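User: Fold this; tokens only.

Assistant: Input:
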Amino acid sequence: MKIDERVEPLVREAFAAAIARDADRLTEAVTAIAAAGDQTATDAINLALKITAYALLDIHEGFTPDQEQIHDLAKDFCEMEEWAVPDEAAAVKLLTALGNVSSVEAVLRPEEIAVLLFVLGAWLLTAFLPDDKHWPQYLDEILDDLERNG
């Protein structure tokens, strides 16, 4: 998979805003994605979905998490990212869809996806890292692997 040079910085900024727990910055990042045009916005959301799914499967050593693990993750996510006021039921739906490689649009309304996706993805990029690794390095590794292996 070729990572689009126009899309990657938009996605990276949205993750960075969520990692910084800066609601205004996240709103600006999501607005910039939407303003970039329909195709770019679709590509950005699709890339963020792939990154988030990759991180989810990576923390489960390549295996799809079971429903108990999904519910535990969603609960922990909502507690740790309280600043974003995430909906636990929506987080369960998103994690389940990502784990099963199924359509997120089938379980969440379009307006629910973007912010939840970036906050959840940011959390997965940071919450399970070894102490000696920083999230930009991990994101670069994911993007490199996606480019190599689709």
